[in-house]
Amino acid sequence: MISELSDQISNLEEIKAYIKKAGGKTELQRISENKDKTGVKIEGVSAIHPGTGEILPIFISDYVIASYGTGAVMAVPAHDQRDFEFARMFDLPIKKVIREHCIDNRNPHIDGKEIIEREVIMAIVRNKKDNTFLTLKWKKQDWHTFVTGGIEENEDPVYAAKREILEETGYKNVEFKKYICGPTRSEFFAAHKDVNRIAHMHVLLFDLLDESQDEITDEEKEIHEIVWINRNEITKDMSHAEMDHVLANIDFEEETAFEDLGVVYNSDSFDGMSSKDAAPEITEKFGEATTTYRIRDWSVSRQRYWGCPIPVVHCEKCGAVPVPENELPVRLPDLEDFTPSGDGKSPLSKAVDWVNIECPMCGADSKRETDTLDTFVDSSWYFLRYPDSKNKEQFSSKESQKEWLPVDFYSGGSEHTTMHLLYSRFFQKALYKLGLVEHDEPFLNRNNRGLILGPDGNKMSKSKGNVVDPDELVEKLGADTVRSYLAFIGPYNEAGSYPWDPNGVVGTRRFIERIVSLKEKISEKDASDVEKLLHKTIKGVGEDYQSLKFNTGISKLMILSNLLEKENFSVETYKTLLKLLSPVAPFICEELWSNLSESTSIHLEKWPVFDESKTIDSEIEIMIQVNGKMRGKIKVGKSTEKTDIFDLAKKEESVDKWLKNEAIKKEIYVEGRLVNFVI
Length: 679
Description:
This protein is of the alpha+beta class. It folds into 6 domains: 78 residues, Isoleucyl-tRNA Synthetase, domain 2, CATH 3.90.740.10; 186 residues, Nucleoside Triphosphate Pyrophosphohydrolase; 47 residues, no CATH class; 59 residues, no CATH class; 152 residues, Orthogonal Bundle (Isoleucyl-tRNA Synthetase, Domain 1); 60 residues, Ubiquitin-like (UB roll). It is built from 21 helices and 25 strands. The strands form 7 sheets. Strands 3, 4, 5, 6, 7, 8, 9, 10 and 11 form a 9-stranded mixed beta sheet that branches.
């Protein structure tokens, strides 16, 4: 490209000198993450952004490799760390176009509650004198948070954060340091507002300059108290959906790029889409897709006793010779001592009689290969053996493969993606080309489940002493309790990390005890509220289970059981509750089912059916705000006119006191959601 534009480039000699210098480096040196980014701006030429029409500068840099695309690459500094570092080095603008997507699994959205969407800040204030951080302990909710609040019209996030810090804590002298992350798209149920919140959260770090403090209002004092905590007390257990991102970035003095998937913004017609879905559409609109494959070398030999011996014989005359097929498989010899010898040789080298054999080709004295195969070799094809494990003639008959394979659904941790699953595909496709298997893909569907951490928020490890023994918990609290808590701890259908909470598992036990005690409250018929919620629950739980959202399914069952404790319900409703819970708590549900004089297993019963008409609300709940602050709520019929809704809202007792003797400048109605009176 440089040669084609040479007559237009005004600093051509500088560019040529840079190319010569970069050419003396290896590709590994050039793409190293640990070196400063270098480059030269190409003067005299520029590029046009295909989506916006902006004029963009062109740089030549050695970290962009020719084997990537065409060699001319569109940098995305906000969402690629190397591009981010390059942009910082040359003071280039960094425009964010993807929001992190966070869902608070402890406070998930509640069906039927109003959804309010707004721009929000989270202000993390640090006192560098003792490395403590400003937090709030809420008095009416079990929350521990940093300072948070909404961004008002015409405010930027930094100004809004300073205002919220002053209003909520009184501290007035703070210095903005950096954006920790964001804006994120966070979803949670805001119990203090009784609404489902979608917050576009800007997380900012401030340093406390001095401890001068204004008096805060009595209203703020009633809501929360100020608590300063040490850095090591900032954990995932704090009441923010964004804590993973906060913990990942709080200790860095500089901002970093956000490289994960999220929700697109600042991108015109693509705003609101997931970045995963938007990428192919952007590609189709502005370019075309190409695929480049790069395979890294895989070392399959291991210097250990346990493993499959590599079927190779080393001969001085013939070199490396494969073991004849009729002598396969090569079996491990018995060894009394299979510890490493310290001389760099595999433990198998101690089996002298096994190692020293004749060369299969020339008969000369030779030695077996004493390294064993990496266990990933075995796990790359084991699933092919499962359907036909006793076959002594073939590794797997085609008849068995036709009946059982390919695997319909594979669920595992994300750590398997680039090793086990990648190599399984290599093996499968190679075997398919050899005509030994019936399908060219090993797995039809893949689910990345979350990872359960220790109670301290770290990955479970014996060395850290944070391993939770499920057998002990089953003995103490029951199998159904442990099983239910594992399903409730986080979304099974999403990759993520969820710390084990000892209080959470006890809470799950109480929920199951509540299900048991409900048997004593069965009456002749259902209350009207029970019938409606029951059909909503059947629908919601069924959909959640099918999409592997077990945690939200259990949450819906908890809501139903709370209502049953207060209202009349029939034995049929109780039976339905047990059916819905039985996949998660199979043992106790089976016992309770039999106690209802049922002779067959609950697990042989048909899944409950819901009536769609009974899942639809005839009333809607309208939130009432005064100057943007939540002051009350009313229930109205779906067909209620806007003017009537305004009248009803003004008469609401909790709202009326805020409107007395005030001139209403504006009445705002967001259909089906909220009323806001501007006074």
